[in-house]
Structures
1.
Amino acid sequence: ELITRLTNDVTQIKSFVYGMMRILIKAPLTCIGAMVLIIVKTQEYAFILGVLIVFSAIWVCLNVFIGYPRYGAVQEKLDKLNSKIREFLIGIRIVKAFSAEKKENEEFVEVSKALGMANVKALRVAAIFMPLVNFTVNMGIVVILLMSNIKGKAEVGSLMATINYMIQILFALSMVSNIVNRSVRATSSANRVKEVLECTICQKDSVNPIPLKRIESLEFNKVSFTYPTSTVETLKGISFSLKKGESLAIIGPTGSGKSTLINLIPRFYDTTDGKVLINCNSINNFAMDNLRGKIRVVTQRPILFSGTIRENLKMAKESASEEELKEALEKAGALNFVNALPQGLDTVLGQRGVNLSGGQKQRLSIARSLCGGCEVLILDDATSALDSFTEAKVLNNLLALPLMLIIVTQRISTARRADNILVLDEGSCVGYDKHTALLSNCSVYKELYSSQIGGN
């Protein structure tokens, strides 16, 4: 929907502004000038002119009143079509795997037909009211000719001048009607773009931010969080602390709030209750660019941008040297496979790194995070595509670095490498200790251990 608003809707506005601004000035001036001349030169036809203008105004207003919601519906249907296309292209392998091409095709045809019908309804309005404006003006010319014939005293020159003025009004009103028709569509698009531009930013910078030079400690103090569209708490009274050089693993069943918790650290969301503290200060007291410049998040589905590997690695630090890039790749366990590529660091990646495997993309994303000299590294299941040997090597490298390492994982074998483990269940902290202690005092952790490792 956002893509449609930023492309198709903006194009509609641009088309109206570029194509209609000149006519928007010319048409009204022509129309007004012709009306003034009719009133001055042939006052006996002023009444006909007044009736003509009233009816034309009625048709134009009805065009706006009926057409506006219909053009809004067209843009909404276009949103759905674009969304369907995007969904299909992203999941094309799944569609093929389930032999669901016919079903997807039927759904696409249905959405396309809905867009077509919406367009027909919108264009039908213009097809009705624009000819009505022309018909009204032409009827005015016919009435003038009839009146002059009945009176039998009209001068040919005066009559021809009046008819010429009426024709000028006809052309002007036709242009005005066309402008109004285009403006209805442009206004609908403008309102949709306006909604995006007027979206309020939930996370606001402090008026007097505290400079953050380095991160020495991180603390969650009775933090709770509820998504704006929900009434159920996703996190409930979470508390833990972490110091520089320490590591924390966050583990728990699916839907326990692990990813939500880590999204609070770089302020992708703000807490609804409690505080997230860095160096004993609320993270709300720091400028967001300053805060996020020291925190890196690597997700399970890493995003790599079109361009070379070098360009992707330099996102965090444009001035990174060749040695820094290779050092980051080495720590992320990616140097060997990058060196094996024909063009090395200058290998061009496809969209979203389509020409790399899942494990390679994850390692490059970790390397990219290390290039900027981050102080808090958050791995959100970011080693899930790695084999056990490679994962162990990468984690050992990261644990040796002087930074805070937070690992969100589903694997007990990964979690037990951290200094401490936070166990979540249904948004609550049900365990916070080391691996051995949790096995004896946390039933949820014990169940996870038994399901993965086996034994009592």
Note: The mean pLDDT is 83.
2.
Amino acid sequence: MRYNHYIWSLALALGLGACSQYEEMPSGGNYASTAMTQEEKDVSNILRSSQHGWSLVLIPDEGNHGGINLSMKFTSDKDVVVASEEYGETVTVPNDPKNPGAGTKQIYQTEFTSNYHFSHNSGLRLTFDTFSRPLHYYSNPNWGLPNGYNGDFEFIVEKVSEDKNVIYLKGCRTGNKMQLTRLKANHATYLSKTQEIKEALKGKALSPLQLGGKEVSISIFGYARQLWVRYTKAEDKTTKAVKENIPFYYTDKGIKLITPLEIGGQKFEGFELSEDKRTVKTLDGKQTLTVFSGTYDLTEGSLRASFEEDKSNSEAHEMFKTLVEIQKQDSYPALFWFMADMGRWGRSRLPQVTLYAYPDPNPNNKTFYRTYYLDYTSVYGQPNQVHITRIIQDGDGYFYSRRAIEWYLENILYYSPFSIDPIPNKTVKKMSSVADPTNEPFYFEVDI
């Protein structure tokens, strides 16, 4: 009997504890799943409440490609219209959707409708789950680079500002912090202004910036959305030259750095372009810098580089010979013409470098294009100089010759910047490295 008494006492204690535990559980509208559903409804209502939609600066790949302006108009609890400062395509549409026999026409489309939904995984998750060209372009896989630009199309909603004008997001793939900001005016007007800023500043350089007691040189990679900055700093009782690319995004007035440049306790966060497009003013309003254009703008024009033995120095020629040998030994063997086209031409959306391969020693066979997107900029006070940086590979052409292309890029970027100068008694010019003036210049002839 004493043993049974203990059992009943224990059962009673557990029963009372269990009742107390469940009395403290939320119920009705406070139950966890109900509360999350209400959060979903609240955010959805806020998204649809904006007359002009929302702006989002998409930051792919930890900011290595800068930020891209998108607009998003949430038209229902599942539909969203997305546009980008950068993306558009020519599409064929019916003249009269109600009359199939009325024929078709081509239009340049910049707005694309897709679906979105909310779910609950590590918080409230906003997913754009049907293909939206302006958004998924930056996450869509491409040959040789499975993540494309490594952009996000799923976001964790972290919080909403008290005035409901900003929704704070975190990219599920990149972890980058981003914001949906309520637009106060037509989204197309805002995106158009960012495009105007890009057109005015791509490939340009600025007069020196004074920051933290240092003079900072700045050149603008407009398509790569990076500032190439150079300055010196003291390190271990010596002076070290600092050269780095800093990602930015365009605004409707100028450029904003994703992470400010800080020197000596002072910060540089970006600048606004003047109406005449000849100067920029830093965002703190303290400095005005002159916009400088070089002689050779390879974001608008192009050149053909020749690496044949009689048109380049031994180092440049040997570099290209190695490139040819790399491709001959590749899984997809081919030969290359000893030339490369650099710049932006035709209908190319981005500046680039293109190499030309053919599959066997017979040059009459078909030539294949091997392209990589590059960006080009100028150097303040040096009208003949051009500097180069990467953007991203171009599809299967890169895939089939990626080892050879990477060898070419490694060398060209190592020797950049270059100076393009006349050659006496020749119509072509010489493109010479100025990266290391102490050594014999790496050079090749260019037709420009």
Note: Residues 13-35 have pLDDT under 50 and may be disordered.
